[in-house]
Task: inverse folding
């Protein structure tokens, strides 16, 4: 095990509980490399997570960690950031955790544009509870609660958070692990709410029911069915149909919540000076 | 040409097969449990695709000076 893992992981907790070939481990190592690149102080960094497979991440990383209730990771993170704005706050969530149970927390954290970086691991399914469909299960795909195929339309997470007001939106995959690190670095540097969707593989609960039994098949599917947003801009719409767009999708500037709150305190306590 | 060393932590390896499949130079083979074993270190070009994609942080690629 090399230096980065020894530095950022609670090595006595490894190996982790995730299934063989689970993408969560790849996302977490991309996160550790991003922390190394950013040179963050581990004591000044908080990692918050909710409930689900992906949210086990806080058990394994050696920062100030907070493993909270289902869907409410962003609510706890907002409290942490507002109480101590100097801290770097990162949130790990899954697709169900962030868009179904915590859907309201997600859109309102986006709307407030609070300086938090949310890494949403999208494995298209509720893995921990046995493979029920989530709001991000693609139409037509099978799940235990959709044995004949999903008939609902899925959210486009990146469009959702962009519409809700997030100021940095990027999508990566576990195959593009190096780029995922770069996105986490860029998201952390953004002064405002950043969302990084990490499309991941769940070979046990999703792949097994969707003709992608092995982790390798799933990771190669991610390689073949993704297209960088810059490359996609030069292609015809029919060429990118059905492909997952990856890369930095949106980046803008807007007033940040903790800075606005400090300004409000100064204004009110200043007595209208 | 640079030489690289490749090591696999066989205790943490869960035999997912990602490194075996992704390696462009077929450095890895598998043992009777399906776990990755380093077969031919000389073929390694140091791309680290295995190290980046190992979900269990088992693989370490280093440069041999």
Result:
């Amino acid at each position: 095990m090399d230096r980065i893992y020894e530095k950022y992981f609670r090595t006595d907790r490894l190996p982790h509980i995730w299934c063989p070939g689970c993408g969560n481990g790849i996302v977490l190592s991309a996160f550790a490399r991003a922390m190394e690149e950013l040179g963050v102080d581990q004591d000044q960094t908080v990692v918050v997570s909710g409930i689900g497979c992906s949210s086990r991440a806080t058990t394994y990383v050696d920062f100030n960690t907070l493993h909270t209730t289902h869907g409410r990771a962003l609510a706890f993170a907002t409290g942490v950031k507002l109480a101590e704005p100097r801290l770097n706050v990162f949130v790990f969530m899954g697709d169900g955790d962030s868009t179904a149970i915590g859907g309201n927390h997600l859109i309102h954290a986006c709307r407030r544009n609070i300086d938090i970086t949310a890494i949403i691991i999208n494995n298209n399914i509720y893995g921990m509870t046995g493979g029920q469909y989530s709001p991000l299960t693609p139409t037509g795909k099978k799940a235990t609660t959709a044995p004949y195929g999903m008939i609902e339309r899925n959210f486009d997470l990146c469009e959702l958070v962009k519409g809700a007001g997030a100021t940095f939106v990027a999508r990566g995959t576990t195959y593009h692990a190096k780029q995922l690190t770069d996105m986490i670095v860029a998201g952390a540097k953004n002064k405002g709410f950043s969302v990084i969707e990490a499309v991941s593989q769940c070979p046990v609960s999703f792949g097994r029911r969707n003709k992608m039994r092995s982790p390798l098949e799933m990771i190669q599917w991610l390689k073949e069915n993704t297209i960088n947003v810059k490359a996609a801009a030069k292609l015809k719409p029919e060429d990118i149909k059905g492909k997952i767009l990856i890369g930095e999708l949106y980046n803008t500037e807007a007033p940040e919540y903790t800075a606005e709150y400090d300004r409000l305190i100064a204004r009110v306590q200043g007595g209208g000076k | 040409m640079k030489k690289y060393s490749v090591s696999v932590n066989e205790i943490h390896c869960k035999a997912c097969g990602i490194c075996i499949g992704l390696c462009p130079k077929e450095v890895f083979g598998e043992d009777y449990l399906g776990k990755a074993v380093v077969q031919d270190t000389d073929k390694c070009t140091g791309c680290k695709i295995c190290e980046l994609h190992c979900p269990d942080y088992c693989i370490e690629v280093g440069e041999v000076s």
Remarks:
- Chain B touches chain A at residues 9, 11-12, 14-18, 20-22, 51-57, 60, 62 (CB under 8 Å).
